[in-house]
Specification:
Number of domains: 1
Largest sheet: 7 strands, mixed
Order of helices and strands: EEEHEHHEHEEEEEEHEHEE
Bound molecules: zinc ion
Strand content: 25-35%
Structural class: alpha/beta
Strand order of the largest sheet: 6-5-4-3-2-1-14
Number of helices: 6
Helix content: 10-25%
Distance between the termini: 6 Å
Oligomer: single chain
CATH topology: Metallo-beta-lactamase, Chain A
Length: 254
């Protein structure tokens, strides 16, 4: 099982980081995309990965940097359908995300072939997807809590090949909603954003959590550049498990 951090930037793309999208790939033939920032289809193609492996797409929340790549994903899937004709599921937090995507597809003269794409609104704090390889559950977080009214935002628990993975999505600026608790079963990998909270607040909390390995994505501007990355590396080196700052296109084996 492989994790590929396709796009690792925050709300703005930078000269060397595209917006958030992370692919979980199992046995070369099954892919699951977590968030779909702009250019997510292009980033898969650039890595030589066919979108025909995509079984499901999971969106954490409906900020543009997490869903802006969905039109491209839908276009590629519908233009080059899977040979077996099986659908790709796209999971969004709210019906408004589905409606907006369908309106965009209509405006660009693309239909919505229901046999190729199925859209689903995510349940909160529940199993949202299961197939023969993987189980995915939503964990509500507080990233959009301050909105009026509050909007849904999720982290994901991914269970596959006997491993447990946490995908944080975007979190609260006080890091008060990090979903792993000290008495949880171990997580083989945690993929966490590192834009919305000071790393100095997170590290004392993270160090007591049952995490075997950590990858940071959704990388803030303050961690861009060689000197900043060096400081980041020194800070996370104090954690009792290996931790890496991801770049676009990096691959991690789980
Ligand atoms: Zn974001
Ligand atoms: Zn966000």
């Amino acid at each position: 099982m492989k994790i590929i951090t396709l796009g690792t930037s925050h709300g703005d793309p930078t000269y060397n980081r595209m917006q958030s999208s992370t692919l979980l790939q199992i046995d070369d033939h099954a892919g699951y995309l977590f968030d779909a920032g702009a250019g997510a289809n292009a980033l898969m193609i650039r890595k030589g990965i066919s979108l025909q492996i995509l079984r499901s797409v999971f969106i954490t929340h409906q900020h543009e940097d997490h869903i802006g790549g969905l039109p491209g994903i839908v276009k590629t899937i519908t233009k080059y359908p899977k040979p077996d004709g099986s659908p790709t599921e796209i999971h969004l937090p709210e019906q408004s995300g589905i409606d907006g995507l369908l309106a965009f597809m209509a405006a660009t003269y693309r239909g919505w072939p229901p046999e190729l794409i199925s859209f689903k609104v995510l349940p909160s704090g529940a199993l949202c997807y299961e197939d023969d390889l993987i189980r995915v559950s939503t964990i509500p977080n507080k990233h959009l809590e301050a909105m009026v009214p509050p909007r849904p935002s999720y982290s994901y628990l991914i269970e596959a090949s006997g491993k447990r993975i946490l995908y944080s999505g975007d979190l609260h600026h006080k890091f008060c909603d990090f979903p792993i608790r000290p008495d949880d079963p171990p997580y083989d990998l945690c993929i966490s954003e590192c834009t919305h909270f000071p790393l100095e607040i997170a590290i004392p909390i993270l160090k007591d959590l049952p995490i075997k390995k950590m990858v940071f994505n959704h990388v803030a501007n303050r961690w861009h550049g060689a000197a900043a990355e060096q400081l980041f590396t020194e800070l996370v080196a104090t954690l009792p498990f290996p931790s890496t700052l991801a770049h676009d296109g990096d691959e991690f084996t789980v």
